[in-house]
Amino acid sequence: MQLPDLSLLVIMVVFWATYAVLRVFVFTPLGKILRDREDSAAASASALDAAVAREKETLAAVDQKLTGARRAAMSAREAGRQEASARRQAILDEARDRARAAADEYQRKLEAEAAGAREELRRGASAIAAEIAELALGRRVA
Questions:
Q1: What is the mean pLDDT of residues 25-43?
Q2: Which of 4, 16, 95, 126 has a 20 to 30 Å separation from 34 between CA atoms?
Q3: Residue 133: which region, alpha, beta or left (left: phi > 0; alpha: psi -120 to 50)?
Q4: Integer angstrom CA distances of residue 22 from 15, 36, 91, 140
Q5: Chain-centre distance of CA 101, in angstroms?
Q6: Residues 85, 23: Cα–Cα separation, whole Å
Q7: Distance in angstroms (rounded) separating the CA atoms of residues 24 and 18
Q8: Nearest to 88 by CA among 96, 98, 76, 99
Q9: What is the average pLDDT across 37-64?
Q10: Integer Cα distance of 45 and 57 in angstroms
């Protein structure tokens, strides 16, 4: 009787021993490294999401402040325009009043001069009429 070939058994024992050694010294530490890397990536991703959310909140707050500042600037600009418009209108009204007063004064002076000229023409007309009468009659008219 021949002894059975035990090489298959030896190969199986060597295989399982190699597997056990590789499992303890390679697969388990490698798996741990990969899990740690995945956990780190997940933590980084959530930190990034939180940072993006904070950035959006900050941008929204800055945008709100900027909008408020724009509104304040626009209202200040509008108030300045209204003030300038009121000042311009007051200056125009004052200039119109002075122009009307000057025109009225010159109108009165002109009317006074015209009345004086009319009176002078009336007096002169009497003298001229007397001269014409003297020339026409050939003698002195009283």
A1: 96
A2: 16
A3: alpha
A4: 10, 20, 99, 162
A5: 44
A6: 89
A7: 10
A8: 96
A9: 96
A10: 18
Q: Is the entire prediction scored with pTM above 0.70?
A: no
Rg (CA), the chain: 59
Residue 23, both tokens: 């499992």
Cβ(140)–Cβ(134) below 8 Å: yes
Alpha helices in the chain (DSSP H): 7-22, 28-137
Q: What's residue 124's pLDDT? A: 83
Residues 6 or more apart whose CB falls under 8 angstroms from that of 140 comprise 134
Q: Which two tokens stand for residue 73?
A: 């600037």
Structure tokens at 83: 């003030």
Torsion of CA 124, 127, 133, 139, to 10 degrees: -160
Q: Please determine, for residue 4, whether its predicted confidence score (pLDDT) is greater than 80.
A: no
pLDDT at 1: 64
Residue 36 vs residues 31, 75, 96: alpha-carbon distances, Å: 9, 58, 88
